[in-house]
Design a protein that fits this description.
The chain has 387 residues and is an alpha/beta fold. It has 16 helices and 13 strands.
Length: 387
């Protein structure tokens, strides 16, 4: 709800996939959302209607009075908030949450928390009080605890509290990779017994290319590379800027596709200093279709991250037939297997050599073929069966 109207992140896409899977099941399903004034509860019909609005199949309604008064939210998020209230079967102030859930939710309710929203003591205690309830929480990564220096100020402690509550309340933890499970359990072990865990690789829907949505002046002439993701320290854009600086004016074009993040002033300054003839171009605000078009036409997707929970952009690039050059990390090797070129995230010279080599080869001759991406069907056979 809060992300409505913005470019969706990987976690947003996972949440959407879960909504779609759950409303397709012939079982009672409810959606819980926190609003500035309390909580709203949507039943199956409400979730279906809300999903249609989120995906643009149905136009959002006009703002209600409360949303008109709400400041600091994206207009689309305010509209989504209005629709959530209109579609709700019940609403309550924070102190009334446990009572509302008792009135509407059946015995043996399974609570799924996919995106860490509402991962609060209030919500988890209210669910735990339901007869025979089970709690399953999706852990996408524990990067904020492993690499706190990459995070925004004030976010590490909040994230740690969420993981502490996940360990305390969950009956089941769902992981996107074995690597994520191992890292999470290593961090949680000193806190106490760790809940049962299962691994279900994320599904990947083939990206839909929309050439007509590509901004004017793109794609560039000649060979080019793309990197996809928020411009923040963990993504290691500094390495790519160093590589392109060494390659000089004859370098292929590099498209940095993503919005600016945090703790990255040095990289932002380098991007701001780029001249009109620079071989690096910063591109933000792309639609999914435009991004897919640019990735599909690239010589390769570059992914030099210091840490990742899953790495969905790499899978989507391979689905489009685009070769992937990425960091040599356990997560990538688990998910991508032999379908990528792995390079240490600090080996500037080797990145430079591979970029030069890939820029000179035929794009069609090196197109990825027969890549089998993980599917949501396989994911849900594991996750929803055990939940």
């Amino acid at each position: 709800m809060r992300r409505a109207g913005r470019v969706w992140t990987g976690v947003d896409r996972v949440e959407l996939a879960y909504i779609e899977a759950l409303i397709a099941e012939d079982v009672p399903v409810f959606g819980l959302a926190r609003t500035p004034l309390g909580y709203v509860l949507l039943d199956r019909a409400g979730l279906i209607a809300f999903h249609r609005r989120l995906t643009g199949a149905v136009q959002t309604s006009s703002l209600d009075i409360l949303s008109r008064l709400q400041r600091g939210m994206h207009p689309a998020a305010r509209a989504a908030l209005s629709d959530a209230r209109r579609l709700a079967v019940a609403r309550c102030l924070p102190r009334g949450l446990a009572g509302m859930l008792r009135r509407y939710l059946p015995v043996r309710t399974a609570y799924l928390n996919i995106g860490h929203s509402n991962l609060s003591t209030r919500v988890l205690r209210a669910v735990r009080a339901l007869p025979e309830a089970r709690i399953a929480i999706f852990v996408h990564d524990v990067i904020p605890l492993e690499y706190p220096h990459y995070q925004r100020a004030g976010t590490v402690g909040v994230f740690e509290q969420k993981m502490q509550r996940a360990r305390r309340f969950a009956d089941l933890l769902i992981y996107n990779s074995m690597d994520t499970q191992q890292r999470t359990e290593r961090i949680m072990a000193p806190w106490g017994p760790v809940p049962q865990g299962i691994v279900a690789h994320l599904g990947a829907i083939p990206p839909v290319v929309a050439h007509a949505e590509v901004p004017a002046g793109l794609p560039p002439e000649g060979p080019y590379f793309v990197t996809v993701g928020t411009i923040e320290p963990r993504k290691n854009h500094a390495l790519l800027l160093d590589v392109w600086q060494n390659l000089g004016p004859k370098a292929p074009m590099l498209l940095i596709c993503g919005s600016r993040g945090w703790n990255n002033d040095a990289v932002f300054a380098r991007l701001d200093a780029l001249g009109p003839d620079a071989r690096v171009r910063e591109v933000s605000g792309l639609t999914d279709g435009a991004l897919a078009s640019l990735v599909k036409g690239a010589q390769g997707l570059l992914f030099p991250s210091h840490a990742e929970g899953f790495g969905l952009p790499a899978i989507e690039a391979l689905q489009l037939g685009t070769p992937v050059m990425c960091s040599n990390m356990a997560t990538f090797r688990e998910i991508l297997a032999n379908n990528a070129q792995y390079i240490d995230d600090s080996d500037h010279k080797l990145w430079e050599e591979y970029v030069k080599e890939w820029s000179q080869r035929s794009r069609d001759a090196h197109q990825v073929r027969d890549f089998e991406a993980p599917t949501w069907e396989a994911h849900f056979k594991v996750a929803l069966t055990l939940t």
